[in-house]
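User: Please write out a complete single-protein record containing the residue sequence and its fold in token form, without commentary.

AI:
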Amino acid sequence: MHARTAALRAAFAGSSRGAISRAGLHPLVVPLAEAEGGTVLGSLSWRLDATGDPGDAPASASEATLVEVQRGGLFVRPLGTPAHVARRAAVEADLAGGDGAAEAVGFFSAAAVEAGGLPYTRGAHAESGLSLDQFLLLRVQAQGDETRGVKVAPEEVWRRAALDLMDAVVLRGGEWGEISADLAKALERAGLQEQAERVRGGG
């Protein structure tokens, strides 16, 4: 089992909570699980008690942000809300396949629901016809609008997807060719036909 997946399981199961030393950790992080190599999965808490400590319990699911940190450093890598992280883990377990995939998908799907999110059904990504990036953006992160009861026009969803795709390739220093097909499709479904044609034509 991948080190991060094991840490996520421990975090959602609560099996390591309260047993992890805070030595060398970011002062605003409540540790939930520890992976190999000194990486700690925790909950970022902006609420301190009277002693200036974030306390032993993470924020509520609606307020919490799961993060990864390294001991001795101040860098914090945000992963998302518990519901988002659990649903993404379910998708990744589904794609990984192999022995235990069905059980892992079920575990993380249940964790997503418990955190206030939507369940993930095994095979949903394959049935969607979307690329992995599109599925994660539209069916894993776009779900926040659904759970809040806010109706967003499909064109706006695809506009956001296009922006997220462009941000992602810039942040990781990739090549535009990596996302050109997905970006053109997102722009087209957003009603931006001219921009979609420019992307397809390389202009």
